[in-house]
Amino acid sequence: MYDHENRIVKDSDFKVAIYARVSSDQQAQAGTIASQIEALHERLAKENLELEQEYSFIDDGYTGATFLRPALERLRDAAAAGAIDRVYVHSPDRLARKYAYQVLLVDELERCGAEVVFLNRQLGQSPEDDLLLQVQGMIAEYERAKIMERCRRGKLHAARRGLVNVLSGAPYGYRYVSCHEGAGQASYEIILEQARVVRQIFEWIGRDRISIGEVRRRLQNQGVPTQNGKAYWDRTTVWGVLKNPAYKGMAAYGKTRTGPMKPRLRTQRGDPEQPRRPYSTSAVPVDQWHYIPVPAIVSEALFDSVQEQLIENKKHARQRKRGAKYLLQGLLVCKKCGYAYYGKPISLSAGKGKRRSYAYYRCIGSDAYRFGGQRICNNKQVRTDLLEQSVWQDVSSLLKNPQRIEQEYKRRLTGNKKNVRWNSSEQLHTLIKKIKRGIARLLDAYQDSLIDKSEFEPRMRRAKERLAKLQAEVKKREDEEAQQKELSLVIGHMQDFADKISSNLEELDWLKRREIIRALVKQVEVDEEVVRIVYRVNPPPFVQAPKKGLLQHCLRRDFPLAQ
After folding, report:
1. How does pLDDT run across 409-445, given as a tens digit for each residue?
2. Does residue 206 lie in a domain region?
3. Is position 173 within any domain?
4. Which is higher by pLDDT, 4 or 476?
5. pLDDT at 486
6. 126 inside domain
7. What is the DSSP letter of 121?
8. Does 172 fall in a domain?
9. HEC states along 448-465?
10. Based on the structure, what is the number of domains in the chain?
11. End-to-end alpha carbon distance in the chain
């Protein structure tokens, strides 16, 4: 056998090792790791050296910017134990990206008696060899930093232009069409079968108001596979679907940022002992995301409704852990200070050694101990049994007589019709075209010096103001028409809901009543003399709704405060 200077090595116990590394899984899959290993084996064969399998150290998918690599750790341990005489590496940047790391590793291995051999250069003892190693290390480190910065700025610029190219993949329900497939332009393509599942998930949360756990169970019972083909839907997977704005047509770029590696108390199940990346990720505030238009699967109104329901589910989950004791728990709000009402049991003396127990709903703001000994609200407390009875009677009356909702909607429709302008939509569009032609003629006259600047500017300003008013009127008409269609659809949905549950209202137990109240009531506002029920009337799923807020909480019921 021969050493790297073609000198014969006679020691039969001479042990050699190889080390190879690629930075990403994509590089590993592309075969770059295989090409390194092949070159290393060719060098060993040329020098008539034999390699034992246990001394083949491969880090595929680990960055060279850190020491924390599984195979590198084993290589250093073996060298420290004196088990290795020589280590073959393809190039210095495969050992480490940073020059300082290269020097430390080479020095450590050689102090342990393991000579380091790079295929693309020879280590010598001259100052020129050391200088060459330094230059190669610094160039590799500089190239890495430059590539990372260019990629970051390039992706950010593309995201601001609304290009899908910066998104690495597509979520469940979409197929990512690469630049090569899309003639230079990447895009999202809806997978119809998966899109139906996505709509169903949003409908379950937004309409049926079930929990994420129940969604997961329904998906598994129906045998719906995940994006990776697994039969098990994890809660975090469902949560990721519900929180992803791509489903309403706006994919988000820049939702996370990288930072220094955070210390870990323990390795999570399924993760390697040493992390593949020497950094940690953290969430970026929503207002700093960059949105990219993609095909929508659900309406924006349904998406927003689901986000509100997720907040409510989280609040109700805390109540379930403590145990719900009151029918209106989580719904009562003080009209004076805005704090919530909570249930509090009170025991009163009834004479002859007997005591009677009552429960009251009490404003949090009236508890002095919560605010440094000073009450911030003096609103009244309310007997739980009397208030719950009043609210349930009103909800039952609404379900038995849904015409109340229909009458309220018709009143709004009538109110919208009273605002009809003299000009029809067709006339408005005609006027807009006429003004645009006038603006074009005015520009031509100014360019041809037929009118001077003092005459041109005020006429152009008046024309643009007139155009803006007409365009705003057209937009208002379109919103009114969309609202009228939406209201008509909601009436039908509410009638169907009332028909299904109004037949056995009196036989419902406490839990069923609580579910119905939570489905229909947004909140109950307690004032000094009046209690107001704010009903929740959401738009039906998968229908394009007008601007948020036009349909929700439109029916309010007031009744005197129960003493």
Report:
1. 666 555 555 554 546 777 888 888 888 888 888 888 8
2. yes
3. no
4. 476
5. 64
6. yes
7. B
8. no
9. CCCCCHHHHHHHHHHHHH
10. 4
11. 101
* pLDDT score recorded for residue 84: 92
Where is average pLDDT lowest: 62-71, 146-155, 199-208?
A: 146-155
Residues 130, 206, single domain; the answer is no
**Matching residue, tokens 């050391």:** 130
DSSP character for 505?
Answer: G
> What CATH number does residue 52 fall under?
3.40.50.1390
175: CB partners within 8 A, 6+ apart: 188, 189, 190, 191
Say how far apart CA 517 and CA 521 lie, in whole Å: 6
Q: Based on the domain organization, do 392 and 532 belong to the same domain? A: yes
Task: Summarize pLDDT for 378-417 with one digit per residue, the tens.
Answer: 998 888 888 988 888 888 887 777 666 666 666 655 555 5
Look at the block and give the residue holding tokens 């200088």.
131
Kindly state whether residues 528 and 379 are assigned to the same domain: yes
Q: Residues 23, 124: one domain?
A: yes
Supply the range of the domain harboring residue 23: 16-147
What are the helix (H) ranges across 81-211? 92-95, 99-111, 127-160, 192-203
Residue in 422, 436, 510 with CA at minimum distance from that of residue 473: 422
More confident residue, 328 or 541: 328
The arithmetic mean of pLDDT across residues 52-68, rounded, is 85
3-state secondary structure of 276: coil
Q: Which two tokens stand for residue 554?
A: 């439109």
Residues 6+ apart with CB under 8 A from 469: none
The arithmetic mean of pLDDT across residues 126-153, rounded, is 68
Tokens representing 519?
A: 């489905």
Helix (H) and strand (E) counts in the chain: 15, 17
